[in-house]
């Protein structure tokens, strides 16, 4: 799956979860998934704990975390 397609799975909406990046259609923060991975959880364990997620959602969180921050304009 291309990076652009993965990143489309992430949404940032100031009306949802205080504008924190979430997996689209959920209130699961990208940072939560990254914290679980950093703590040693496997993708399979995360999917078992959050059965409405798919592997691409976890990969999207990784891609989002690895993406460079946007450059300021103006």
Verbal overview:
This protein is mainly alpha-helical and 74 residues long. The chain has one domain (3-66): Arc Repressor Mutant, subunit A. Helix content is 45%, strand content 5%. It is built from four helices and two strands; from the N terminus they run H-E-E-H-H-H. The protein has a two-stranded antiparallel sheet. The mean pLDDT is 93.
Structural class: mainly alpha
Determine the mean pLDDT: 93
Radius of gyration: 12 Å
- The ordered string of helix (H) and strand (E) elements is HEEHHH
Please sum up the structure shown.
The protein is built from four helices and two strands.
Structural features:
Arc Repressor Mutant, subunit A; 4 helices; mainly alpha; about 70 residues; two-stranded antiparallel sheet; single chain
Write the layout of secondary structure elements.
Elements: H1 3-7, E1 10-11, E2 22-23, H2 30-38, H3 43-49, H4 55-66
Antiparallel strand pairs: 1-2
Helix pairs in contact: 2-4
């Amino acid at each position: 799956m291309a990076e652009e397609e993965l990143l489309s799975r992430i949404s940032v909406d100031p009306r949802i979860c205080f504008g924190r990046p979430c997996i689209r259609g959920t209130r699961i923060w990208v940072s939560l998934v990254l914290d679980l991975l950093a703590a040693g959880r496997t993708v399979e364990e995360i999917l078992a704990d959050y059965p409405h997620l798919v592997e691409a959602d976890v990969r999207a969180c990784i891609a989002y975390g690895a993406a460079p921050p946007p450059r300021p304009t103006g």
